[in-house]
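User: quick one
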Amino acid sequence: MSTQAAPDPTLDAERDEPPFPPAVVEELMKLFVKGVRAHQLYLHNNPIYLRAIELLGEGLAAVWQHADELALTFTESEIRFHNRAVLTEPAKSADSLPWLFFKDGIREVRIIRGFEEEELVKLLDVVQRARKATPDDDDLLTMLWEQDFVYLRYRFVDLAMESAPPLLDTTPAEMRPSAEAAPEHIQESVASDTRPGVVSLDDFDTTLYFLDDKEIDYLREGVKNEYARDLRPSVLSVLLDIFEAQWDVAVRDEICDILDGFILHLLSASQFRAVAYLLREVGVTLGRAKEVKPEQRAKLEALPTRLSAPEALSQLLESLEESSELPPQADLTELFEQLRPAALTTVFAWLARLQNPQLKPLLEAAAARLASQNTSELVKLIASPNELVSGEAIRRAGGLKTAAAVAPLAAIMTDGAQPLRLLAVQALNEIASPGALQVLEKSIDDPDREVRVATLRAIAARAYKPALPRVDSAVKGKRSRDVDLTEKMALFEAFGALAGDAGVAVLEGMLTGKGFLGKREDPELRACAAMALGRIGGTRANEVLRKASTDNEKEVLVRNAINRALRAPSA
Amino acid sequence: MTAPTRQQRPGGNEAFGEMGGDSYVRRAGKVYVLALYGALRSIKMYPVENAAVQKALAELVNVTGDLMKREAELEIKVSGEFIFVNSTRLRLDLDNYASFSHLLSLFRANGVGVLRVHGTPSARDWLTFLSLMQAPSKESASQRLLQLTGKLEGAKILNFELGAANETEEEESREKVKEVAKRTYSQSVAVTKELVHSVRVGRSPNIKKIKRVVQTIVDQILNEETSLMGLTTIRDYDEYTFTHSVNVCIFSVALGRRLGLTKLQLYDLGLAALFHDIGKSRVAVDVLNKASGLTDDEWRQIAAHPWLGTLTLFHMRGQQELPYRAMVVAYEHHMKTDQTGYPRPIRKRDMSIFSKVVAVADGFDAATSRRAYQTDPLSPAAVLQEMRDNPRRGMDPVVVKAFINLLGVYPVGTLVVLDTFELAIVHQANPIAELISRPIVRIVSDVRGNVIYPGELVDLAVRDASGERFARTIIKTENPDRYGIRISDYFA
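Assistant: Done. Structure below.
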């Protein structure tokens, strides 16, 4: 704790002769400087840091061998012990310990035995904060005051305080006889007085003033709630209430200006819930407030638009990306719900390039909410020239089964890049409307293998029969022989799913038939045919498979496929 | 440098003021006082063989043992309204003030200033000692101390060393504290004046100064609240705007302390209280000081000060964080608990407990102060009564109750008439809660009816020679103007 008293001159005289060698204190100061540096540079579980603290404790222990407390005085460039410099740092900067203390008015610090146990690290922390402090931050005095040190005391000169004028004229009242104060007058006054404002003893039952348990709990709860609640929405509601209740143009202008700056303040402090509250309530306010000037209305309405703009939103996302402590999901979602549809472009672009693994799911969820509320913007973004944005929009459109997205997805299937076409296949499959499947069917013939495979699998999964002619032609044609095994499997799976019993004959021919010179089809093709039969299932298909299985098949690939197909549940 | 004695350990060196922080001694001391109180109560209520008595004594023996093990010695000192354990002053809060009050009154009644415990007293030793302390007696405090010491020696109980209160030391300490309080008060008023002036001329006020003022007030209240509370009686007519804010800050912090707020919470509350009327800096001075009735427009200007306060606080630079709590309190301090009053909120609000505290402190100081439009203020006691009884004031009844508990039925600065037909000014609420209507007063008239200065301090809880009646009792409160008494003379 602190006092403002000037140092006692008798103590100074006494201090001329140090009671123990100043070298002990000099050593302690060196260790303190190292401790401060270690506190700043290392994590607190780092061995170097732990060693520095240990050494500092040893330095203090060396002092305690001579005394129970250590008084140090501060000048601009020195820390002194009994008028001897024990640390000299001439620079007048925050890096200089003497200056750091001196500039904020601290002139003497006393460290008491026991300090090293609980308060040493707190002091190191304060010093570090004070070094980094900007002029607007608290000064060292306030920081020390807040820490409520028990084993560290300090004297300071309060540079902020000027000499205050004395209190009222404190000249003692004269010993003056007062006619009114004479006992007989007092008695008279007691007997006759019924003036208002005079309280009778009977008015107060003293037992009333003990707080009972319920009342104590009530007050305690009040304090607990005071510190549990977020005051920012409360202050925002004050501002918006004033805006609604006061029609004065200047007052409303002032509030608009405050809100303008306040939103930035809240964002930089990651107070997303408060920002969401502000954006939401601004809308409510504008709906209720009377005689709002157009410029004021425009200014308030612009708040969510401004925040949704790419530059502002990018800043927000960048700060989140770099933040080690992320906001709760609910806060972020609440904020995103208040953003304008235009925000989707920026969010989608960032989602694709996020590095922070903790942030990704948070932003995904928030983006999902935003997208679901703004499907028309989402659909527009499918055509975005930015592939990251377009891809994210396609993905979201599929996830949300947005039927309106089919047309732009069709355009992607025609002109889009391969990765986008691949995403579009998935989205069309998820949308699964007749229109979507119709678009999907065309990509059976896509130039890209992955797109074709994905399409065939989707069509098989959906059992989209209108696609049969296209699949049928691919199976029977040259394509089924030219493509790799994966695509072949997808093609035959789709064929099996769509053709049903009508496809058994074709597949039987491929599996068991012999061509010119008794040559059988390629084993991969035969294995795929077996799989397709398995997919069809039923009596006829199984008959073909059983027959093939007793046929002393030599090809392992085919034999395995037949066995698997026989075991597989029919489609 | 010489090694300090135990008395110079944290908290004991007045030159360095009150130490904050929940040190081991402070925490253990609280537990110790509660154990002592528990044992005293159970001994008083039950026969010795009762399990409750045995349990309470066992607890006391344990707690004593723990403290002795860690500290190697145990000393309880009573000074003024404070209890020190091993020179560390214990903090009063909601859940321990009954035990504090009881111990204080018991120590005082027995003339005990210091109790030093040696070795490890047994449950039986404690039982004997505490029973002797609570035994009824008509002797004076100093005689009781002698008797008590003699009886302990007779019973061969040597674990307890009793010492009388050092009145000279206490008086010197009181004077010193009073001086510090005066300096704190005058600095606070000066800084508040500068703050209001800065806002009026559109300049950024020096926030660091304001913070320092509040920190000093918090320290002062935690250390010794009586002196600073006494200075609130100054209520200077010309400086009302500034002294009022400082007074509300002092009352709020003192009340907050009773509510068990931590030091940093008291700081928050104090800052909010000091700023509560900052909106008035944007109201025309002639409207603020108008003695006659206000026009509708002038009233609107006055009633705007709560929300103007919130707006003003947004413009205060030089802060790491905006003072949200102060903004809320500035806005709500004239709001009633049912959210009528002014301003009327449009959105439903959960009123802050800090606003409720400041509302009570504000209402009390405003109603007891002389202002341009209030030349004949009510007596403090009448104001408390009104706050308690008039629901239309819309104050939180529990907070009002706690406030009365803080100030006493007769608040500091009240002029009272005693049954001896002496005039007296209430100096300090009685620290013993049961004696709320028996404050410590300063007698300000002599037997011939002369107003005297500085007058003698007397405790209205003191009984006459027979021990059956109180020596002096308040009959009524009085208007100091009637006797030409300026209350602040006796505090400043």
